[in-house]
Specification:
The complex is a heterodimer of chains A (129) and B (377). Chain A contains 5 helices and no strands. Chain A is mostly helical. Chain A has 2 domains: 9-47; 54-116, no CATH class. The radius of gyration of chain B is 23 Å and the shape is elongated. Chain B has helices at 2-17, 25-42, 48-61, 75-84, 88-99, 103-107, 111-117, 120-131, 136-143, 150-160, 165-177, 179-190, 193-196, 208-225, 230-245, 249-272, 277-280, 283-313, 332-344, 351-376.
Chain lengths: 129, 377
């Protein structure tokens, strides 16, 4: 090894920090570039938001409303966050279709902040304990 | 009478060849240090996978007359050569790459800045080490402790200050194991309750294309820019590529389990074996341990402070606690961010958000090491 370029600690500190920032900023731009040129990006985004045909949904709701599966339904919820009747009907229909006999007693909204990442983190932490 | 003489001569010979005849107070002290480290590893569970073999290596290194580092080849010498020739640190990086999900980093590329900010501890300690009398190469090797990255610390020490390897490796791994104790007070000191309660939005979906292309592009870019760390970064990215490609599951599994475990045993035991009394029991060792702590605290503070700036700039969309994960102790630093965030606001899960800066810290520390190698060699 030869002689160092400088032995001034402050200069070494400043130069190194600058280089580290420049390299990592450049890497950050590269990541954004990869995202921009990603040919698989659009199809995946479309797949991530599947939608149900409106007519199909109406048909299910109508069937559930006329079904005898729901004998009593109590919907606790906040005034501004009440669950639409159609949504409840769809949930009940899904349960009935699974062949489960009984009645749905309550439906409540999940925590709005309960994202997939959070669920993942929660299960991850749970697993480590 | 002849029998008695022969018996005495034999006994003398056994005694002269035994370790007891050459045993020094320093050896005794280092064996006690090794036992203390064993206690921390197995009873207190501070990084037992690393501290355990390091501690045992330390005990082994302080038995006189073992011939471990003599001219004849033996297993201990072979392990030591693996460190001297920088074979083990890149192999550990291969395992780390195979174990690490780069998704959070790819979803939020700006977290690389937090990884960069956390490297400030490295350079603060470097300056501090030079001020207290270490030469520039020794100071650089000491400073890298602040990156909280064992393999990189060993890698840089071997290249710049091999005589300090034992002290630096022990300091690095000890502080890594103490991340849950060292970081939270600094994080709380530098942030307000309101900042700690910031809830971050969900990360975007990262495609397979991005996951596969990134390690390739990053390897090309960093290896061309900083060739001295091509082995470290290259192996990190290869490990990640094996994980993400989806067609090399067996290799990925080997890299992150069997191979990583085997190399960890060799690297940690070999590192412990550098802790012989002659090299370790010096005033410099205490200085290195103190400077390592300063580096570590500085790195944590640097990440959190940039996190605070980002929090303000983005209109309270970033929790500054994820900045502390910019030191590269993966995934422990991210878990500390998560735990401190959860204490401030139950239900606020920061783990995946903190993994971005955490991975950035691994890359940042390697880049800092490469920069210092380029400047100081």
């Amino acid at each position: 090894m030869g002689h160092p370029v400088t032995t001034n600690p402050f200069i070494i500190m400043m130069i190194n920090m600058t280089v580290v920032f420049i390299v990592l900023v450049a890497l950050s731009f590269l990541i954004q570039l990869i995202h921009k040129i990603d040919p698989t990006k659009e199809p995946e985004e479309k797949e991530s938001a599947p939608h149900v045909e409106e007519d199909e949904m109406q048909r299910i709701i109508k069937n559930v409303k006329s079904s005898k599966t729901v004998t009593h339904l109590d919907v606790p919820g906040e005034d501004d966050d009440s669950i639409p009747e159609e949504v409840i009907a769809a949930i009940v229909a899904a349960i009935a279709r699974c062949g489960i006999n009984g009645e749905v007693r309550a439906v409540r909204l999940a925590d709005k902040n309960n994202t997939a990442w959070k669920s993942n983190a929660r299960s991850n932490l749970g697993g480590r304990r | 009478m002849e029998f008695v003489d022969a018996f005495v001569v034999s006994l003398q010979s056994v005694w002269n060849d035994s370790g007891f005849s050459s045993f020094t107070v320093g050896n005794g002290v280092m064996i006690v240090v090794g036992l203390l480290l064993l206690y921390m590893a197995f009873v207190k569970e501070f990084e037992p996978l690393l501290l355990g073999p390091i501690a045992f290596g330390c005990i082994l290194a302080n038995f006189p007359n073992t011939g471990f580092f003599g001219e004849e080849m033996n297993v201990m010498k072979a392990i030591n050569l693996g460190i001297q020739y920088e074979i083990f640190p890149p192999l550990i990086f291969l395992g780390i790459g195979a174990m690490t999900d780069f998704g959070p980093l790819l979803a939020r590329p700006w977290t690389l800045l937090l990884g960069a900010a956390a490297q400030i501890g490295v350079f603060v300690a470097l300056a501090g080490a030079m001020i207290v009398g270490f030469d520039v190469k020794e100071a650089a090797a000491i400073g890298i402790i602040g990156g909280a990255d064992g393999p990189t610390s060993i890698y840089l020490s071997i290249k710049l200050a091999p005589h300090l390897l034992g002290a630096i490796a022990v300091a690095a791994y000890t502080y890594m194991s103490l991340v849950p104790m060292i970081q939270p007070p600094i994080m709380k000191l530098l942030t307000t309750q309101k900042e700690r309660e910031v809830v971050m939005t969900e990360l975007r979906q990262v495609t397979k294309f991005e996951r596969v292309v990134f390690p390739i592009v990053a390897t090309i870019f960093i290896s061309l820019l900083l060739p001295p760390i091509a082995a470290l970064l290259g192996m990190l990215m290869l490990g990640n590529l094996l994980r993400e490609s989806g067609v090399t599951d067996r290799l990925s599994d080997t890299a992150q389990n069997s191979l990583c475990n085997i190399v960890t045993i060799f690297l940690a035991t070999g590192t412990g074996m550098t802790m012989n009394a002659d090299d370790f029991l010096k005033a410099d060792t205490l200085l290195i341990i103190c400077l390592g702590l300063i580096a570590f605290m500085g790195g944590t503070a640097g990440g959190v402070l940039l996190g605070k700036v980002m929090c303000r700039v983005t209109g309270w969309k970033i929790n500054p606690l994820i900045g502390s994960a910019g030191v590269s102790a993966v995934p422990m630093a991210a878990r500390v961010s998560q735990l401190v965030g959860m204490k401030a606001k139950p239900g606020n899960y920061l783990l995946m958000h903190a993994m971005g800066p955490n991975v950035a810290g691994v890359i940042g520390t390697a880049v800092a090491a490469g920069t210092m190698l380029a400047m100081l060699k």
